[in-house]
Amino acid sequence: MVASGRPTAGPPVFYYDLGSPECYIVAEQVMTAFEIVPEWQPVLGADLGLAGGEVDRERIEHAAGALNLQPVRWPDRLETDTRQAMLAATYAKRVGRAVAFSLAAFRQAFAGGRDLGEESTVLIAGAACEMHPTALLKGIALRSVREALGSAGQHARRAGVRELPAIAIDGHVFTGMDALVAAEGLTDERR
User: Fold this and answer.
1) Which residue, 97, 117, 146, 161, has fewest beta-carbon neighbours within 10 Å?
2) DSSP string covering 55-122, please?
3) What 3-state class would DSSP assign to 132?
4) How far apart are the C-alpha atoms of 180 and 81, rounded to whole Å?
5) How many CB atoms lie within 10 A of CB 114?
């Protein structure tokens, strides 16, 4: 899906929620999709008014297989509160580890079958990218991190993001698992 939003200056922006298997599939591809490294922006789907819906597990599993990812292991609960994990991703972004932490968290959830609503899963993802557990927990608790996550949701809405995953590039917003294909098509046209 494509929506027009406010123009973006600079690199593409990848908007994601760690609890979304669709975001996981796009996250595994986004770093190599563009000539410019995209900005990773954690956004709570709930802050965009997105409620968890039915997940097409077969499509996710097929996409993971096509990308030669580990087989998908589904968490016992897909509908979990990812707020703590998203605060951790926001803190990780602040300290220059957004990509490493987010990929580790996605992989814990969808390759390891772990619940992102559990603190231990968040800490394991942090450890995978050399974030000390105490520092990560203190970072999650910072008011400035909570405010940054809330602001990210507001910015995403202003940019035209109505669905996750989303890629904003050159004033356009592409959403869903096919966002990369559409965004790459736009960048190919402009070369």
Assistant:
1) 146
2) --HHHHHHHHHHTTPPPP---S-SS---HHHHHHHHHHHHTT-HHHHHHHHHHHHHTS---TTSHHHH
3) coil
4) 27
5) 20
- Residue ranges per structural domain of the chain: 2-189
Residue pointed to by tokens 């390891």: 112
For residue 4, what pLDDT is reported?
42
The CATH code of domain 2-189 reads: 3.40.30.10
Given phi > 0 = left and psi -120 to 50 = alpha, else beta, which region is 77?
beta
Specify whether the CB–CB gap between 50 and 163 falls below 8 A: yes
> What predicted TM-score, i.e. pTM, was given to this entire model?
0.90
Give the residues of the chain that fall short of pLDDT 50: 1-8, 191
